[in-house]
Design goal:
The chain contains eleven helices and 20 strands. It is of the alpha/beta class and 424 residues long. The structure holds pyridoxal-5'-phosphate. Pyridoxal-5'-phosphate (PLP) binds next to helix 10.
Length: 424
């Protein structure tokens, strides 16, 4: 399993990292641009925190995944993990990709009643919304059972609750296959150590008994190995998938007509030089190899893979100060808008807006303006000699960060700019 600091600090001075450059996110005239817009100009205009979204990128990412699934010969459904970005502007882009439920379209993976209602309000038909929740209450069920959505239940107690209120209903079972994969250990949502998610192998018979007692019909097997795993962890995902298939066989033997296996989300995005991107064709081929014998539809519910590299977070350097052996670069944003490192140990690349390709000359800790010592974005991080007043972009800021923003310390959650990709 991986650790947060996947790459050791580079010997200095080091060339600026270039792995992140792609159509749309480019350097022009020694300035960082997104879809042709000068990001430093946007920062001066709006101030920080400023999230800048590339409206073309989510669609490109979805199409890349769907292309691989098609090439692998899978019958598949793509559902967007709404929690990664509930922004209506982004949802409109994803909704426009095609009819949800068709190979080109994108359905919704929802994890709360609020997300179900939000998806409905943003144009998704109920049958294209798949709910997979945790610790669902009777009040939650008041909303969930009022709509003909797909419902994956992740525990025996949930089966009992739904069975009592909606006997005979079709459901999916979320299982913990006993193996998982994640960017860090904490991001593995399944594995030997029980997590709060899913029916574990040893409880499957109890789950089946509860299903039978209430005359429920299990048509879906769901698992989510974990989040943020990268190309060198495909084997870990495959181990989880292989174990999920043994549970699929037990359900089929028990007589349930399973027509969908939902392999969850979790595809990660490289954060730093040296990390290995997921090979989408290898991923799709792995799923196809394990599921082909069963004739099921494979469902995918990516969040970060679609959104992470679709936005940058802009900030200004407000202090550069040595404290003991550590040089701190202080920014006017905090973990209240960028919890990637604080919560998940995901250390993003930080790029100056002017002179982005300057060599990296010193190791620094990049910190925010929230009143907590843990409010840092990078440690032992090679940066150029940035000066107070310079603007920087924190990359890979499109997934979860804005959705999870809060006004901790009464710091603002900031503004948002959306940029279309110029034609050609
Ligand atoms: C059940 C389920 N599906 C999908 C996702 C989306 O994960 P990611 O954004 O890592 O693709 C999550 C994230 O926690 C999840 O729990």
């Amino acid at each position: 399993m991986s650790s947060p600091a996947r790459t050791a600090p580079t010997a200095l001075p080091a060339p600026a990292p270039t792995w992140w450059q792609r159509p749309g996110l480019e350097v022009h005239d020694d300035r960082l641009t997104l879809n042709g817009a000068d990001l430093d100009v946007l920062l001066r205009e709006h101030g920080a925190p400023l999230f800048v979204y590339d409206l073309a990128r989510p669609a490109e990412n979805v199409r890349a995944l769907q292309g691989a699934l098609r090439r692998a010969g899978l019958r598949y459904l793509t559902r967007f993990a709404l929690k990664s970005c509930p922004d209506p502007r982004i949802l409109a882009v994803l909704r426009a990709l095609g009819e949800p439920g068709t190979p080109d379209g994108v359905g919704i993976d929802a994890c709360s009643p609020g997300e179900v209602l939000h998806a409905l309000a943003n144009g998704w038909p109920p049958e294209t919304i798949s709910f997979t929740g945790t610790n669902v209450s009777e009040r939650d069920l008041d909303v969930l059972l009022a709509h003909p959505i797909r419902l994956n239940l992740d525990g025996v107690s949930q089966i009992e609750r739904v069975g009592r209120r909606a006997p005979g209903r079709a459901i999916g079972l979320r299982v913990n296959p006993g193996a998982g994969a994640g960017y860090t250990d904490d991001l593995a949502y399944a594995g030997e150590r029980p997590t709060k998610f899913g029916v574990t192998t040893d409880r499957l018979d109890d789950a089946v008994a509860a299903v039978r007692r209430h005359g429920l019909a299990v048509d879906t097997l769901h698992f989510h190995a974990g989040s943020g795993w990268l190309g060198d962890q495909l084997g870990e995902f495959e181990a989880a998938l292989a174990r999920a298939v043994t549970l699929l066989e037990r359900l089929l033997e028990a007589g349930f007509a399973i027509r969908e296996v939902n392999v969850g989300g979790g595809l990660g995005r490289v954060a730093r030089d040296g990390e290995v991107p997921v090979d989408l064709d290898a991923y799709a081929a792995t799923v196809a190899r394990h599921l082909a014998p069963y004739g099921v539809t494979a469902a995918f519910e990516p969040g970060d893979f679609v959104m992470k590299d679709a936005a940058v977070l802009l900030a200004e350097v407000v202090s550069v100060e040595r404290r003991g052996s550590v040089t701190f670069v202080g920014l006017d944003v905090g973990w209240n808008v960028n919890c990637a490192y604080f919560i998940y140990g995901y250390a993003q690349e930080i790029v100056p807006l002017a002179g982005p390709m300057r060599p990296r000359t010193r190791l620094v800790t990049v910190a925010g303006h929230i009143n907590e010592a843990g409010d840092v974005f990078a440690e032992d991080y090679p940066m150029p000699d940035v000066a107070e007043g310079e603007g920087v972009a924190i990359l890979n800021a499109g997934g979860y960060l804005q959705a999870m923003s809060m006004t901790h310390c009464l710091r603002p959650t900031g503004a948002t700019v959306y940029l279309e990709r110029p034609a050609g």
